[in-house]
Amino acid sequence: MRLDAEYVLPLRWDDDRDLDDLASYLDEVVRWIDVTVVDGSEHARFAAHAAAFPPRVRQVAPASRRGNGKACGVVSGLALARHERVVIADDDVRHDRSSLIALVSGLRDADLVVPQNVFVPGPWHARWDTARSLVNRCARNDYPGTYAVRRSILAGGYDVETLFENLEMERTVRARGGRVRRRPDLFVPRRPPTARQFLGQRVRQAYDSLAQPMRMGGELALAPAMFALRRRPGILCLLFGASIVAAEIGRRRDHGRDVFSPSAALWAPLWVAERAVTIWIAVALRLRGGVPYAGRRMKRAATPLRRLRRATEGA
Fold this sequence. Notes:
The protein is α/β, with parallel strands linked by helices. The chain has helices at 19-29, 43-52, 69-80, 97-106, 124-138, 165-175, 195-208, 213-220, 222-228, 233-252, 268-287, 305-314; strands at 6-11, 34-39, 58-60, 85-89, 112-119, 146-150, 180-190, 291-293, 296-298. The longest helix has 20 residues, at 233-252.
C-alpha cells in the first residue's frame, strides 16, 4: 500500500558520480510514495538526471534559484506537492519503508517531525562529524537532513535567504503555531560526504551557530579558554573530557547505542578543537558580509523566532 504523502528531494549537482546510487534508491522509494525531485542542476545535468531517474519520479526545476539552493528546492517542492503530508530529504538520505511510515505517521499529531540521521558507512571524517551530532543530541537539538512536514503550515514557503535552512524552516513552523515533534529514536541512514566536502563544510557549519546566540557565546569562549589553560594541561584535559562525556550522553539517549559506535564519543575533542577555531572565522566572515555560498555571500544564518512571530502576527 502506497503512502498518502509526497517525497520532496531538492537537488543541485555539479558532479554526477553518485547518480547511479541515487537513481537506484529512488527506484525503491517511488514504489512506496510519490516522489518529486526539484533539480536546480544546469541543463545538461538536468537532462542526464531525467534519463537516469525512474519514469514515475517527477523532476522539476525550482521556481527560483535566488537564495539558498536547498531551501529554494524545498519551497518549490512544497508548492507542487500533491499531498498534505510531505517528507523532505537531502540527496544523501536513505530512507526505508519503515522510516517513511514512521515519519508520515508522526504528522497525525504534529506539523513537523524531526528524526535523527546516522552516517552509513562511517569513514574517519563521518566519525568526526558524528561527534557533533552526539553533542547536539546531548542538548536535544540536532538538525538532520530529512523531515516530515504538513504542507499547509508552510504555505507561502519560508525565507530562502538564510544559510541554516533547517532551523529557518523549523522556526517558521513554530512561529505559525505549528507543533514540532522530535524523534531522536528514529534513525535514518545518511551517506557521508567525501573528505573534501567534509573539509569544505567546517566553517559553514560553524556559521549556523550565529543564529543561536547562547551556543555561539559558548563556542566563542572555547579558544580563549584553551589559550588560558595552555600551561595547565590537566585542566585542559578535563575540558576535552567533558566534551566526551557530553557526546556519550548523546550516544546513550533514545536508543542511540543501537546505531552509534562505542568509540563515537571519543571524537568529540577533535570537533571541539575544530569549532573553537571555525566559529571565529565564521564571525569574521559575518563582519565581511557573509559566508561564501554558491558564488555569492549568505549574510544571515537564520531569522530570530521572535521576528518571525511578529511577522506572522502582522500578516
